[in-house]
Amino acid sequence: MSATTILSAYYRHKQGGFTTRLYRAYRALDAAGYRVIYVATEKLPVEGEHIQPVILPMRSKPSSPWYWPEFYLRAMRELRRLTREHQVQQHVMFSFFYATLSILASWGLGVKTLTFVRGDDIFDAAKKRFARPRIWAHSLLEKLGMRYSHQVITTSDTMKASINQRSGGQDKTASLPNNIVTQPLDIHLPNIRADTVRIATVSVLNPRKNLMLVLRALSQLPPDQRWEYLLIGSDNSGKHYLEELQAFTAEAGLSDRVHFLGWRDDVATLLQSCHLLVLPTLHEGSPNALLEAMGYGLPCLASHIPEIREILPDRELLFDPHHPAELTHKLERFLQLPGYAGVIKAKTAQCKARYTFDWDQRMVALVDAANG
Q1: What is the DSSP string of 72-129?
Q2: What's the rounded Cα separation, in Å, for the pair 347 and 362?
Q3: How far is CA 67 from CA 72, 104, 129, 268, in A?
Q4: Same structural domain for residues 18 and 166?
Q5: 13 and 103 inside one domain
Q6: Which domain holds residue 135?
Q7: Does residue 229 sit in the same domain as residue 335?
Q8: Claim to verify: residue 159 and residue 201 sit in the same structural domain
Q9: Best CA proximity match to 154, nearest among 117, 119, 180
Q10: How many domains does the chain have?
Q11: Mutual orientation of helices 340-350 and 325-336 as an angle, nearest 10°?
Q12: Residue from 199, 180, 192 nearest 259 by CA
């Protein structure tokens, strides 16, 4: 008996939590006995016995204004061909953009589209250039995706409620948060009389991640405090956000303490020598960086927003993401009070239980249910 075929699509590899979960979903489906065919413009870095790429012959370059229209039309045509050829009954897509590709490509063919939503694209659009047309486009994609998807799965209850309020669909939405996959590391609490306290943020660099707030908070610390800040991640803003952060760092006289490390494959090694993770984001789905740090056993402080409160419900672990004073105050306590780092570490550890589960199994169960 041949394996059930699942179709998917994603344009090309991009570093970050989005593709981390996308590839993990493909591998989980492969391990569960499904055949996964994905349509892309280049081979994605995900392997499996039954994972098969179908590469689109693009004429436009990614920087061209014709790239996305060409990709959309080519991908839609290829998805329809593959759906018919392999008699596919289900598409698995990540984001409403790809959901609409699936819906249009399979119109009239009886396909069920399972849409995984990793972030709020409408919120993101407001932070980018040409915000109004972007918001309009993503609002349309969301409404179409909500109406015609078989099921929509978000990464948090907060996101599910927001999308339901905007676009309806209460009867077809579910929540599947990210899980903790990292194992505890030997994280040492700092000796505040002798150690330089190492603070880290793991994040792509764009305005939504709100990294300027951390720099502003650090700039208000007393100059005699011993600390350094590692910012691990690459700029995906399209607005030279890294240059903006570096300029502020230089103006504030922090260049010898703040280190922009770019995208790294040795994050676990870097974090093992750190004492605190800070996540200042303005909006998230279910942030992998925070969950990974929690799994390592690293004390965490994060922004007081609904999505983060689902993960860190203890008020002591949260700070106002719009005003740096509260973060400055908590960093001062971390640097000056001998027992405060231990308190933050213990409170962070208490929040782990809900996010320690088999994500792969739950993801496959959702696909199994749609096939039933």
Answers
A1: HHHHHHHHHHHHHHTT--EEEEESHHHHHHHHHHTTTTTPEEEEEE-S-HHHHHTTSS
A2: 27
A3: 9, 19, 18, 36
A4: yes
A5: yes
A6: 5-177+358-371
A7: yes
A8: no
A9: 117
A10: 2
A11: 110
A12: 199
170 by Cβ neighbours in 10 Å (0-12 / 13-18 / 19+) ranks as exposed
CA 280, 283, 289, 295 dihedral sign is: positive
186 is a domain residue: no
Q: Do both 245 and 318 map to the same domain? A: yes
State whether 138 and 214 are in the same domain: no
Tell me the β-bridge partners of 175: 154
Other Cβ atoms closer than 10 A to 5: 19
Q: Is 200 helix (H, G, I), strand (E, B) or coil?
A: strand
Residue 106 lies in a domain: yes
Angstrom distance (rounded) from CA 83 to CA 156: 31
pTM of the prediction? 0.84
Q: Is 199 helix (H, G, I), strand (E, B) or coil?
A: strand
Average pLDDT of the segment spanning 246-250: 98
Q: With 70 as the cut, is the pLDDT of residue 191 above it?
A: yes
The answer as to whether 68 is a domain residue is: yes
363 shares its domain with 309: no
DSSP state of 32: T
1 pLDDT exceeds 70? no
The pair of three-digit structure tokens given for residue 257, joined into one six-digit string: 């303490």
Q: Read off the CATH number of the domain in which 89 is found.
A: 3.40.50.2000
> Which amino acid, one-letter code, is at 118?
R
Which two structure tokens, joined as six digits, stand for 343? 């308190």
Assigned domain for 309 exists: yes
| 3-class DSSP assignment, residue 326 | helix
Tokens of 52: 């098969």
Taking only the tens place, the pLDDT of each residue in 27-60 is 999 999 999 999 999 999 999 999 999 999 999 9
What residue type is assigned to position 255 of the chain?
S
Report the C-alpha gap between 100 and 117 in whole angstroms: 13
Q: 169 and 225 share a domain?
A: no
